[in-house]
Amino acid sequence: GRASQGFLPDELPYISYIQDRVGKILRLSDLSGHISRQDLFLCQATYFQNYLVGKAVPREQTLVMPVPADERVFYPLERDDARADKFTCEVSFVKHGHPHADELLKHFMEDYFGKQEDNIRRINERIFSELYRVTCRTGRGQLSEQDMQEVVAAMLHPEAPEDVRQWMRQVITQFNVTVYSGAWRCQFLEALDEAGVPLRLYGKNWDQHRTLGRLGYGPVERGAELNCVYNFSQINLHINHVNTMHQRLVECGLAGGFIMTAALTPEKDWEPAARHFEPGKELVLFDDPSDLVDKCRYYLDHAEERREIAENLRRRCLAKHTTGAAARTALEAWRKLL
């Protein structure tokens, strides 16, 4: 934080969160001359902690702290709550929607290459069409942004100048966020739909998806309505292509809900949920679309196991992942520095 806010006097204590790659933190290779000994970097994931340590931030001045949640907002509701009829369902997924991956690619191409000269545009469209085929259309497991960088690097001309390579790396980052993430997520949702597992999709824009649009139930308000989704869904889903540990797990846990999370390759998982929760006891991981279908069917038929796992998750979240617990953890680490 301080490295990005040059106007702050050194003697002023300063707290910021999720600013791991902004300003000087992004631009400079060595941050050692831009921070003071009392600065503590709160990192959402180990991935960002390692990123900062690689820029000469002392590891003892970093703290990995996944996003906590407020137990006054997310908490168990009575089964006869008046809102139960509206939100009760078998399986739910909460995240804003988007068109099918083929259309995401088309929009991406138009945004980044549409105004380029014809010969440059054709080259870039060929490169990213191939990247799309390799990453989004082969049924492979999770790929990291570094994997994508390597795929594209192999297609670039050996004499491509560094400014072109740097621009291409930035475009790959956007491809990962806007195209690949949607394609990877929807393979799971489409598998559930094809298997006939009842599914609700909460969030904006699901009506734009050509196969999943009919499953959209519109957006939910961030507080009370989202708490209802966690409470009255028999199975809540979390599907993220970069990290398994997410605020969604904590919110659902505090609400007393049962949640299943898409597993990632450990070395590519920015912050593994298994570092914070015990798989099989506090949450359930699924490996691929067919595994998700099998586990949804199993846990829909085993309510007592769902209840026990949800209760274990809630106990852990209350002890370790509330906003109050997070504040105490941060202050304790800061006191050690001071």
Biggest sheet, in brief? 5 strands, parallel
Low-confidence stretches: none
Shape summary: globular
- Could you tell me the strand content as a percent range? 5-15%
Helix content: 40-55%
Q: How are helices and strands ordered from N to C?
A: HEHEHEHHHHEHEHEEHHH
Count of beta strands:
7
Class computed from helices, strands and strand pairing: alpha/beta
Mean pLDDT score, rounded? 92
Distance between the termini: 17 Å
Spatial strand order of the main sheet: 4-3-5-6-7
Keywords:
5-stranded parallel β-sheet; alpha/beta; 12 helices; two-stranded parallel sheet; about 350 residues; single chain; 7 strands
Please summarize what this structure is.
The protein has 338 residues and is α/β, with parallel strands linked by helices.
Helix and strand topology:
Elements (H helix, E strand, L loop, with lengths): L22 H5 L13 E3 L2 H8 L8 E3 L19 H4 L1 E6 L6 H13 L4 H19 L8 H11 L6 H34 L3 E4 L21 H9 E6 L8 H9 L3 E4 L21 E3 L2 H12 L2 H18 L2 H15 L1
Parallel strand pairs: 1-2, 3-4, 3-5, 5-6, 6-7
3D structure, described in words:
This protein starts with 22 loop residues before the first helix and ends with a helix. The longest helix has 34 residues, at 162-195. Helix 9 (247-255) links the parallel strand 5 and strand 6. It has helices at residues 23-27, 46-53, 84-87, 101-113, 118-136, 145-155, 162-195, 224-232, 247-255, 289-300, 303-320, 323-337; strands at residues 41-43, 62-64, 89-94, 199-202, 233-238, 259-262, 284-286. The protein has 338 residues and is α/β, with parallel strands linked by helices. Helix 4 (101-113) runs antiparallel to helix 5 (118-136) and helix 6 packs across helix 7. A five-stranded parallel β-sheet has the order 4-3-5-6-7, with helices on both faces. A two-stranded parallel ribbon has the order 1-2. The protein has twelve helices and seven strands. Helices cover 46% and strands 9% of the residues.
